[in-house]
Amino acid sequence: MAERVVLITGGARGIGYGIAECFARQGERVALADLNPAAAAQSAAALLPLGAPDAAGFAVDVAHRASVEALLAAVSERLGAVDVLVNNAGICPFEEVMAMTPETWQRTLDINLTGAFHCTQVVGQQMIDRGQGGRVICITSLAENVTSSAQVDYGASKAGLRMTTVGFSIALGRHGITCNAIAPGMILTDLTRWHWEQPEHAAFIKQRVPVGRIGTPTDIGHAAVFLASPEAAYINGITLRVDGGHQACCV
User: Fold this and answer.
1) What is the pTM of this model?
2) I want to staple 185 with a disulfide (CB 3.0 to 4.6 A). Which of 133, 178, 200, 246 is the partner?
3) Phi, psi (rounded to 5 degrees) for 215
4) DSSP states of 116-175 as a string?
């Protein structure tokens, strides 16, 4: 397979970077888009020794359509047209719903849901115009089905993203573009390490996750590589849970 261009939003760290690592090891050209362009550029440089023939960092605020359009133009000029889009950018403020401000609610939806809409529509149109197909992968969450009073905005955005994924799979499928979602379970990142490595939380993982461990960003990355592969060409409109069986034992 010829080198493809993979665009990952929120790619400077965490799950986004874990996905980028896996695509880099497949020899793909990787564009990391992030609100922090310096961090994106630094992370992109680290992909080159892993096997990416080229990688670059870009600035984007997915909540704003003009920023997404500027991102696509910059990526296309630097790396080429996008073959795989990974909608990973997201936030989770963890505010109790009865104390949540309308601004917090709206910002979460703007980034997690509307941002993915902007990116998929803008990049999807480029894919349609090229006529060579493509892949779109949206990172949702187990929160699309279960949530808490401190994650109502997050859960609503991820449930909405699941259905947005389904809708785009219908619209884009006829153009040879598949659109699927990955729902991560509990994932260990630099931002969550302090929480999950506490003894009581580590014990919770052992109890509630059948495989007996917390997930890693590359666990999500491997799933993304599969969904972007030729072997997944007939998979469209699904959500793939990557959670070690956590939700299976919680429902």
Assistant:
1) 0.95
2) 246
3) -80, 165
4) HHHHHHHHHHHHHHHTS-EEEEEE--GGGT---TT-HHHHHHHHHHHHHHHHHHHHHHTT
Please identify, in words, the CATH class of the domain defined by 5-249.
alpha beta
For 201, the token pair is 């939380």
Task: Say how far apart CA 251 and CA 246 lie, in whole Å.
Answer: 9
Six-digit token string for 204: 């919770």
Tokens, residue 210: 């059948």
Single out the residue of 61, 49, 54 nearest to residue 77, CA to CA.
Answer: 54
Phi and psi torsions of 45, nearest 5°: -60, -35
The DSSP bridge partners found for residue 242 are 184
Torsion of CA 68, 72, 74, 76, to 10 degrees: 180
pLDDT in tens, 166-184: 999 999 999 999 999 999 9
Per-residue pLDDT, averaged over 41-66, amounts to: 98
141 catalytic per annotation: yes
Assess whether 158 carries a catalytic annotation.
yes
Question: 17 an active-site residue?
Answer: no
Express each pLDDT in 122-166 by its tens digit. Answer: 999 999 999 999 999 999 998 888 888 999 999 999 999 999 999
From 141, 149, 206, 229, the catalytic residue: 141
- DSSP E strand boundaries for the chain: 5-9, 29-34, 55-59, 84-87, 134-139, 177-184, 239-242
Tokens of 79: 């790396």
* 132 φ, ψ (degrees, to nearest 5): -115, 15
Structure tokens at 32: 């990391």
Which tokens sit at 237?
């409109």
> Exactly one of 17, 43, 157, 158 is catalytic; which is it?
158
Amino acid identity, position 208: R
